[in-house]
């Protein structure tokens, strides 16, 4: 991996952890789940809205007539035990070596822990050339992924392979971009029984230090966003950052997602013991 992610630390931590899996197999937009325990691959469990690329043979035309929306029948084998990890590979996430390394480590740890739990992991990255990897190739795909995207996560979703129904979806990003956060998080939650938003932030994201000649710059475009970082500019940034975080938390609550913030300067083991505890539970198979 290009930013010195510590794969040996991931390998050391993974056997002692378990992912926080949802208690119910699937959360859909329409209707109630038909069952809460696993059954055969033909057992109907829930309904969800149509997404581009879905199999039209699964459309529930009675639900379409009732709601006016294209609704699909979702079966148990579509949602569990699948794990989907989405990595924001934009240039802003690679703003510092520590930020990129923690992003890669968190994503890899989720994949490795999920595999140890018997899940089927899938990995998606928003690189300029996005790809989907599944199973054992997730590690090498993440290692090779370039953090070179010039668009933000919300924009990148439009050029990526579609998200698939899954039991658990983990999205790793800094979420520091201008978009309608409620719509974005709702889109990320669609088709998943549970959604975790892991926000990886560098020290300069949390509190820009300023200094002589320092400026705020858009890491995707390279354009200067502010003049010199005076005290007034830094105070304005702090206010905007606080408002952004409040909006992101509210969007997560509305989508019944879990938001955790991981400071990049901390080690992976410290993050697992602290901010990431809601996602990585102690007491895995080791």
Descriptors:
Rossmann fold; two-stranded antiparallel ribbon; alpha/beta; six-stranded mixed beta sheet; globular; 286 residues
Describe this structure in words.
This protein is an alpha/beta fold. It has two domains: about 5-25 and about 80-275, Rossmann fold (3-Layer(aba) Sandwich), CATH 3.40.50; about 25-75, no CATH class. It is built from ten helices and twelve strands. The strands form four sheets. The chain has a six-stranded mixed β-sheet, with helices on both faces. The longest helix is centred in the last third of the chain and has 24 residues, at about 230-255. The radius of gyration is 20 Å and the shape is globular. The two termini are about 25 Å apart. Residues about 25-45 and about 210-225 have low confidence and may be disordered.
Describe the secondary-structure layout.
Layout: H1 7-13, E1 17-19, E2 44-49, H2 61-67, E3 71-75, H3 76-79, E4 82-87, H4 97-116, E5 120-125, E6 132-134, H5 138-144, H6 153-156, E7 166-173, H7 181-189, E8 192-201, H8 203-206, E9 215-217, E10 224-228, H9 231-254, E11 258-263, H10 268-273, E12 280-282
Parallel strand pairs: 4-5, 4-7, 7-8, 8-11
Antiparallel strand pairs: 1-12, 2-3, 5-6, 9-10
Helix pairs in contact: 1-4, 4-5, 7-9
């Amino acid at each position: 991996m290009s930013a010195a992610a510590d794969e040996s630390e991931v390998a050391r931590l993974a056997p002692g952890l378990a992912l926080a899996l949802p208690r119910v197999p699937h959360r859909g937009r329409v209707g109630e789940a038909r069952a809460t325990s696993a059954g055969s691959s033909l057992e109907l469990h829930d309904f969800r809205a149509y997404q581009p690329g879905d199999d039209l043979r699964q459309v529930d035309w009675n639900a379409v007539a009732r709601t006016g929306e294209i609704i699909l029948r979702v079966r148990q084998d579509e949602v569990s035990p699948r794990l989907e990890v989405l990595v924001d590979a934009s240039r802003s996430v690679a703003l510092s070596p520590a930020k990129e390394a923690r992003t890669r480590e968190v994503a890899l740890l989720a994949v490795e822990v999920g595999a140890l739990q018997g899940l089927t992991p899938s990995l998606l990255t928003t690189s300029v050339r996005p790809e989907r990897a599944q199973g054992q190739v997730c590690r090498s795909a993440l290692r090779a992924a370039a953090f070179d995207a010039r668009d933000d996560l919300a924009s990148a979703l439009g050029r990526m392979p579609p998200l698939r129904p899954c039991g658990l979806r983990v999205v790793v990003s800094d979420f520091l971009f201008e978009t309608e956060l409620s719509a974005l998080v709702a889109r990320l939650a669609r088709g998943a029984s549970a959604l975790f938003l892991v926000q990886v932030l560098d020290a300069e994201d949390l509190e820009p230090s300023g200094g002589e000649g320092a400026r705020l710059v858009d890491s995707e475009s390279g354009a200067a966003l502010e003049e010199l970082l005076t005290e007034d500019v830094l105070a304005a940034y702090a206010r905007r950052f606080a408002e952004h975080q409040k909006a992101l938390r509210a969007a997560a609550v509305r989508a019944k997602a879990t938001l955790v913030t991981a400071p990049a300067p901390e080690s992976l083991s410290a993050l697992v013991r602290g901010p990431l505890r809601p996602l990585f539970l102690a007491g895995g198979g080791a």
